[in-house]
Specification:
This protein is an alpha+beta fold. Helices cover about 60% and strands about 20% of the residues. α2 packs antiparallel against α3 (about 95-115).
Amino acid sequence: MANKKSKNDDIKNDVAKSVVEEEAVIEIPLTPLELAQKESAEFKDMALRKMAELENYRRNNLNLVKETRDRTIREVLEAVLPSVDGFDRAEELIVDEKTKDGIKMIREQLVQLLSKYQVTPIVAVGQDFNPELHECIMQVDDPDMVGKVKYEIQKGYKIGDRILRYSRVAVGKKAE
């Protein structure tokens, strides 16, 4: 029986020793070289993160500048459109040919300015009504033009693929 007791005691002691050894993990101090390598890796990681942050900052600033520029150009061009409309109306009303020619010249300068920024008129008359391009102001009885633009009330314009101003139109409908 003494033999069994000593075996049990030995097992208990071994278990207790392994528990104590696990709890008392001994930290081996790093050598100066290992410490320098560890610091170097940390600094390298930090530098890479800062470079990525700087690149994101630059990209965001470029996008912001481009968006601001595009918005400003759109606002200025939208402000010019009523002048073009005014010259169109004046050209229709004026009977003196010299004055009409002067109005045409000034209008052409404005149209050239608009085309410099890829502003193009939206073709509407005779086309199917398209709510992505046209704004229907009224309907006109015309069985031949049902669902088609009968005439423009105000010309619409696009800048590239985006709408700068919708065409205000009258659309044909069946007579009631």
